[in-house]
Fold these 4 entries.
Entry 1:
Amino acid sequence: MASSDSTSIAGFYGWTDTLKAVHYGPGSTTTALPKLLDKLAIKKALIVTGKSLHDKTDIVKRVEKVLKDQNAYGATFFDIGQHTPVVGIRRGLELFKHHQCDGIVSVGGGSPIDASKAILYFEQKETNGSTLPQIAIPTTLSAAEYSVSCMTP
């Protein structure tokens, strides 16, 4: 299902019901994120990221801008530590609920991506509703973006 050729460093692929799409290449955040928000019907997203990416790079600000341009920005949570401590997950869940978000955009490596899965898991447990969607923007090769679960205490 790939849509790139051998000379391109940009493209798309997807292969499971839970992993709807993987977009990659320069500019893919600004081009793919609005499409994914629409495809997953996310109206207000919580961004989950780490403190270093938030404070030392502009990637989170660029994601915030895309969400704001789409009128889909809820809040940004950047207090998740390495290995996804439970206390951070609880704080993220409270922010998610406070801003009445209906999806998460995670930016970073395995900790923010796994924290997002845990936040959505606990939200689903509290509401007995369906599991809400997550869009992952990985900045490292952690492979957390390819799994559908996380370990919960």
Entry 2:
Amino acid sequence: MADHVVAKDRKILVAVDEGEESIYALSWCLKNMISRNSKDTLILLYVKPPRAVYSALDGTGYLFSTDILATMDKYSNDVAVCVIEKAKRTCREQADEVKVKVRVENGDPRDLICQVAQRINADVLVMGSHGYGLIKRALLGSVSNHCAQNVKCPVLIVKKPKCSSSGTK
């Protein structure tokens, strides 16, 4: 299917996170959107959620030391490295010839994904869907829905198929 696409220098922004859904979306993108001898650039974007704001003294009277805050930051950075490495490995395994760039941002994923798509002038944004039901989506918000409503470029939301009880997809 992807072999019939006219070669063009496209910027394909793929939002990745800790969930299987984003790696599935990346994999789907590599199989279905990237053609052989493609001049496309795949931009992997991971957004680290903002660290909760703590005062030096929490509500129970305990102090948050700089060591604890540094440990929280290190953990956040380690997660980002793991997510990006997994995404890059997926790219190498499925489309070694594709040009891959990486961006790691800090903040609210809903806003930053939209801002980065605009800033880099992405041709398409690819993202996975967690498949939350109505209640969870209302409580937690949907990053993919927010991006679909606010990004200027086309948005491809890839939904990971649910496994049936027999174990097949």
Entry 3:
Amino acid sequence: MVQFKIILSMFVAFYLRLASIQATDVQYCDKQGNYAVKVTGVNISPNPVARGKPATFSISASTDETISEGKLVLDVSYFGWHVHSETHDLCAGTSCPVTGDFLISSSQNLPSYAPPGSYTLKMRLVGGSKKQLTCITFDFSIGLTSSLANS
């Protein structure tokens, strides 16, 4: 019986670790859109995000254009309700000018009072000429634990 519990515990730990490193499913806002920037993946660490602790969102992308300036426009929804917006300078999250394969990374502390559950992030990359270069959405989760509970 003790061996079964140990094996079960190891299996659960392995499954939870595997689930936390799986790729995040990314959808383009316009499925027929011919965006200049193609997103190849999103990595969220940790996944699920812990309230009140740093979370890093890394977006792998590529382009055939040379992009020397732009803005990342982020909109967050919680169960379909818009709850947060922010705008960042593209060159603050990656080295500019951007061409070929590149990575945009942003780390943030989510508030400790953020309710746990499923969120949707919509990210638009807008070039210097106000042209939309890409638009994606993806889901992420905020877990039940917070820094207050871990203190």
Entry 4:
Amino acid sequence: MILAIELLKEGGGEGSMALSVDNQAAIRATKAFISKPGHYLMDKFHDDLRKLVPAHDERKLTIRWSPGHHGIPGNEAADEQAKMAARGDSSAPNELPKSLLTARTNAATTLPISKSALKQQFGRIIKEESSNIMKSSLRYKCLHEIDALAPSKHFAKLTEKLPRPHSSLLFQL
């Protein structure tokens, strides 16, 4: 959506303008002018929109929902580019909207990292490390013969209400 505003600016942004978006959550977020955590991209969209269409301007921008993957030219390519961006693949700085570049160096702006995404990533890392520690344990071979899924949430759930010494004894059996 930020790129669309940039393209409208470059095209002159004359008269009525329409933007088709296949993400209903993003459309709803355009109506929230109150900045919230994680809304930095929507804040950027609103800033760019205010530059394109000032407050007392007669021009209008209509944002419409369009069903994704239904023969709309360019939608598949845009969807693929969005997926690449979500994986961390970034466009070359000369292909980014000007609002996403730093003024002095013309390099890509580093966007804030989502607290939720950091927590999820940290949880995955901890889970992987604990699994590796478990697999290197002397008891792992015996445990794995009894429960091939170990370490699992199932054991933790079964023993969560037991005192720690009791669950430790069960684990050592």
